[in-house]
Design goal:
Rossmann fold, about 210 residues
Length: about 210
């Protein structure tokens, strides 16, 4: 895989995205391949501030539209401050979620019309679209159990999204799978397999193995 490429990782809570991104980064460091890791929401000072608002489960009550627009505000900053400059430096950009997450969560999950989200994506993201997206697919029951184990089973440690019910995550997962069926750049990975198996699959798809 040549440098100066854009890769994103997608999936519901507990799918193992963060672990796979860390393993990929370790591999790239080992072979002195320049790369930038960023996340959404977040990645920039503005984005991290927005992240605190979006994930606050105790004091923040957001409408679906407000939630969507905050994600795209964070995304716009991330593109201009992190993604665009890194690609111009001919680096590999690794993004923990991108606009496919908005399609799945706010579109399929919250019920916002997909056409509206697509128009917003065109406005904010073009021409910065991932060359390859890894969708780590997992049954919501398993993913949520992993996320809650990570939070030591304490409800007060859950963010707004981790606190959503199983029905919500079933919609999000189905949305992700539908998006993958429509776009050959989205590669489906089975996140219930071993961490090493998934990692080797990532490397193979990137042309490193």
């Amino acid at each position: 895989m040549p440098q100066g490429r854009f890769v994103s990782f997608e999936g519901i809570e507990g799918c193992g995205k963060t672990t796979q991104i860390a393993l990929l980064s370790e591999y790239l460091i080992k072979y002195s391949i320049a790369h930038t890791i960023t996340r959404e929401p977040g990645g920039t000072a503005v984005g991290e501030g927005i992240r605190k608002v979006l994930l606050n489960s105790e004091t923040i009550r957001l409408t679906a539209a407000s939630e969507l627009l905050l994600f795209y505000a964070s995304r716009s900053q991330n593109i201009q401050e992190k993604i665009k400059p890194a690609l111009e430096r001919n680096e590999i950009v690794i993004c923990d979620r991108y606009y496919h997450a908005s399609m799945a969560y706010q579109g399929y999950g919250r019920g916002i019309p997909l056409d509206f989200i697509r128009k917003l994506t065109d406005l904010v993201c073009d021409p910065y679209r991932p060359d390859l997206t890894f969708l780590l697919d997992i049954e919501p029951e398993i993913g949520l159990a992993r996320a809650r184990a990570r939070n030591h089973g304490r409800i007060e440690n859950e963010d707004r999204f981790e606190a959503e019910d199983l029905e919500f995550y079933n919609r999000v997962r189905e949305g992700y799978l539908e998006l993958a069926s429509e776009d050959e750049r989205i590669q489906l990975l089975y996140a219930d397999r071993s961490i090493e198996t998934v990692h080797r699959h990532v490397l193979t798809l990137l042309g490193f193995d």
